[in-house]
Every structure is written in C-alpha cells, then in structure tokens.
Design a protein that fits this description.
The protein has 546 residues and is α+β, with helices and mostly antiparallel strands. Helix content is 30%, strand content 18%. It is elongated. One of its GO terms (molecular function) is ligand-gated sodium channel activity.
C-alpha cells in the first residue's frame, strides 16, 4: 500500500518530484514550465549525494548535476552497455546517474538511459530497495494488502472458496502475494473436469489510487501458474491481467524429462551443483542462477541484495552499514550479465520439469448493462473496508482453468543402446560380408584366444626347461644318454610334454648300446598257395616245340 508507506518514502518522493520539476518542468497543480537548474535552491539531498542524477550537455562527458546545478567532467572509464546512446540524438535528452567506489572516488561507473522515465524509475528503485531493506518483515507484511483486501469473490470447481485457500508469501518488490492451492496445509485441491466453469474464478480488488506512482507505472495484477514445489518467479515470467476486463487463461499441462549424463548435462535434483539453494524449493535453473548471484554478492560486497532471499548469516544492504553496496552491485551485475561471474557455467538445467502452456483471452468486464448493479453489489459486499464506491478500473476478473485433463508427457530415449548397436553390427556384417555372430566369435577365437594359448605354452615350456636345468646344475649329475629307461618320450631330446607326432618321432636318435626290439619278419612259408587243381588244364600248358 502506497498510503501506508508514505512515512518511509516521503523524503524520497519529495526529491523525485523536485528532480522532475527541475528537469522537465513537471509540477503538480502548476503550469509545466521548464526551469533552469540554477533556479532550484536545494540544500543538498542525501539521495542525490549518494546517487547523483546527471544531464549530459555534450559528447565530451560533461554533465550537469541535479542537486547542485554544477557542470563537471565525468570521471571513470566504466560505462553501462547502453552508454553508446550518448552519441546519437540530442544530448540534452540523455539522463543517467553515476556510481563511485566509496573507498576510491576515481573508480566510477556511469549508467545512461535513452528516456528520463527509465532513469528516474531505476534511480528511485535503488533508493526504494535501500529503504525497504531496513524495515522488518513483519512490518512490511502489515503494510501490504491482506487476502481479504485483495479477494472480492472466489469460486473453484463450481464451489465457493475464500482466504483460507490462499497462502501468503512476501515478495520484496510487490509486497504480499497469495498462492492458491499451495498444499501447505496438507490438502491439494483438484478439478473434476476441464472447462472454464470448473477452474478458479476470482474478482480482485485493484486499488489503483493507492499505487506508488514512481515504482509502478502499469495497473493490474500479475499471476503465475506453477507446481507446489516450485518457487514463483513472478517478476520474471508472470502474466499480467488488466483491470476493467475479464481475463480467461486456458492451460495445457506438459511434463518433460531429459536424459542425464552421458546424453546431456542436466541435473536430477541439483545435489551435484555447488550452489546453495536459498529458496527452499525444488531445483530449477532460475533458482540456481539467483542463488549463485546472491552468494557472489555477499562474498564481494559484504551484504545481500534486497530482491532475493537472504543467505544464512548475512544481512541486506543499506547505506548506513554498506555505503559502497550500489557500486559493488552494479559492477557485479554487469559481470553476471556478461557471463563472467561463472554462474552460467556452474548451473545446469533440470532433467525433469513441468510446464503449463497458457492461452489468454480478454473481454470487457463488466458490460455496460450490468456495470451499475454489479458495482453496487460489490461495493456493498466490501462493506466498511473501503469508504468509496467501487469503479470498474479498481476490479479485475480472472478465470484460470484446464482446457482438458490430458497430461502430455515428453521424454528422451537414447537412439542407440548396446543391444541396438550389436544388432546393427550383426545386420551389417550379414548384409555385406555374409557373416553371423558365430562366425565373428570363431574369428576372435582363432586370432586371439588360440594365439594367446600358443604363446603361453611356449613360455611355460621355456620356464620348465630352465627349472630342470637349474635342478641338474645343483645336483651336479650329468644326464645319462645310455639309460635304457629313457627312451621314446622320456628321451631328454624331446622336451615337449605332449605326445610326439609322427615327424618328431622320426627325428628321435636311437640308443647306442641297446638296440630297440624289432618286429620279426613274417613267415613267408605260410603264404604258400596250395593248388586246388590236380591236373593242369590243356590251355595252360607251355608248348616247347612247334
């Protein structure tokens, strides 16, 4: 609530309005006449001393300070990535601010903007975070909107709902945010069917008159659909809804899963990432990047940045305790954007994640014929909580529902596994070489297993011969060549353990003294043939005379 924060922001708002009046002739209730900087009699604001707003006069780094009206040369060689816009257009329209190292005034960074709106907002936001960092969390929650203030009507799955179904969490910049169906009470609601009638329907009270005019320039609300275990980064991926309109958001749910190593460099739970999870939610790439930057902020600047969760043992940055934190923050953020901080190299994508594809449609609400009675009834329902009649620009109608209850699952599968690889290998061999797996195994056996066995057997024979020779040398007894018992395979010449083949048997020497027993020749007399005929046939007789 801007009205409840005015006591904390009064000085900042006063100086911001003075800057607008001086530079742009902006004045509430007065004609917009551009004033000279010299006409502003300022006593010197702490806000402008800490972060001086500058107007560029020319291209030679000469600028005019808002609070003093003095022209001076801008020192320092570090410039914002958008500083090149100084070289285009009218230099009088270029506004920026300078941040210097409190310990070394020569180390400065200059940040320029193409529009005075962006410059004023960024300058205001820095001071706003510094002020909010010094206010206790309990006080900030009381200064923000409650669930009763925000919700006018609520329906889910055709049944009425109320603030008991919403869980509060405090966002550093947006204040109190509320999560529907967070599951913290142990109960998770589910819709019975798809369609807008069975989703969440709420009418939100958007008190446009109580907006901070310098911090927020749009009217409406931000929503984000997320899982109960996920942190809602509403400032990064939130969907904005309009006032005086009915916004319908249809959803399709998709669950995705990627393969981890060696197929990709994703992480399953984030346990292998050397970055502490400051959000106490399931791992995501955004959580890792924000946590990594916050850790680097604490290590480099000595304090934590206000827009992110507070690490253990650290405290948020503010002027009083950390006068150098803004310069340190911008230098560190510049390294982070340029991927020089190492966070992008450390953090990895999650292997499994959920996505909700949103389709948004908008209609005018309430209609011209129903506007009068509807605003009267809603104002009556609001009762004494507000002392005014509601306007349609103070309201936003929101419907969030599933288009259907089909869950889409996307998963990665390896294109080649070991089984598929062997199958493809065997198929290619059979196609091009007419080989089968048995043939390949036999080739491996012949070329590798048999060769290895031959080599090992030769080595064993050499080792055994060496051992026998060593035993003989120790005993001093030479081998007896004429020993009748050492014949055949016992002959010392034959050193092979295997039985001798036909060729090796022919090369064996015979004993000198004891000839080998010979097989006696056959008794050829037993081979005589007894004729079966007593008389010789006439045609076999030899004729001696003619």
């Amino acid at each position: 609530r801007y009205s409840s924060m005015k006591d904390y922001l009064s000085e900042l708002d006063k100086e911001t309005k003075k800057a607008l009046e001086t530079f742009y002739g902006f004045s509430e209730g007065k004609s917009k006449v551009r004033r000279s900087v010299d006409e502003w009699n300022s006593t010197g604001s702490d806000f402008f001393k800490q972060i001086p707003l500058l107007k560029f006069e020319d291209f030679s780094k000469t600028a005019t300070e808002f609070h003093s009206g003095q022209k001076r040369k801008i020192e320092g060689s570090v410039f914002h990535k958008d500083s090149s816009i100084v070289n285009s257009g009218d230099s009088n329209d270029i506004i920026g601010f300078q941040l210097c190292d409190a310990n070394n005034s020569s180390e400065c960074a200059l940040y320029t903007f193409s529009s005075g709106v962006n410059a004023i907002q960024e300058w205001y936001k820095l001071h706003y975070m510094n002020i909010m960092a010094q206010i206790p969390l309990e006080t900030k929650e009381k200064l923000s909107y409650s669930a009763d203030d925000l919700l006018l009507t609520c329906f889910f799955d055709g049944l009425s709902c109320d603030k008991r179904h919403f869980t509060r969490f405090h966002h550093p910049l947006h204040g109190n945010c509320y999560t529907f169906n967070s599951g913290e009470n142990g109960t998770i609601l589910s819709t019975s069917t798809g369609g807008s009638e069975y989703g969440l329907q709420v009418v939100l009270y958007i008190d446009e008159a109580d907006y901070n005019p310098f911090l927020v320039t749009s009217t409406g609300a931000k929503i984000i659909v997320h899982d109960q275990d996920e942190y809602p980064f509403i400032e990064d991926i939130g969907t904005e809804i309009e006032t005086a309109a009915a916004t319908s958001i249809g959803m399709h749910f998709t669950r995705s899963r990627k393969l981890s190593k060696p197929y990709s460099d994703c992480t399953e739970t984030g346990a292998d990432i050397p970055v502490e999870n400051l959000y106490n939610k399931s791992y995501s790439l955004q959580i890792c990047l924000h946590s990594c930057f916050q850790k680097a902020m604490v290590d480099s600047c000595g304090c934590a940045q206000y827009a992110q969760p507070l690490p253990a043992g650290a405290e948020y940055c503010n002027y009083k305790k950390n006068p150098n934190w803004m310069y340190c923050y911008y230098r560190l953020h510049e390294k982070f954007v340029k991927e020089q901080l190492g966070c992008q190299q450390i953090c990895k994508d999650a292997c499994s994640f959920k996505e909700w594809a949103l389709t948004t449609s908008i209609a005018q609400w309430p209609s011209a014929v129903s506007e009068d009675w509807m605003l009267r009834v809603l104002s009556w329902d609001k009762g004494q909580k507000i002392n005014k009649k509601l306007n349609k620009t103070d309201l936003a109608n929101l419907m969030v529902f599933y288009k259907d209850l089909n869950e889409r699952f996307i998963s990665e599968n390896p294109a080649n596994t070991l089984v598929i690889l062997l199958s493809n290998f065997g198929g290619q061999l059979g196609l091009w070489m007419s080989c089968s797996v048995v043939c390949v195994i036999e080739i491996v056996e012949v070329f590798f297993i048999d060769s290895l066995s031959i080599v090992m057997r030769r080595q064993w024979q050499k080792a055994k011969k060496w051992w026998n020779d060593r035993k003989r040398d120790r005993s001093g007894k030479p081998p007896e060549a004429g020993d009748p018992e050492r014949q055949g395979h016992d002959n010392p010449v034959c050193i092979d353990e295997d039985l001798p083949t036909f060729n090796t048997a022919l090369r064996l020497p015979l004993p000198q003294d004891n000839p080998l027993p010979r097989t006696p020749p056959p008794n050829y007399s037993t081979l005589r043939l007894e004729t079966a005929f007593t008389e010789q046939l006439p045609d076999t007789l030899e004729v001696g005379q003619h």
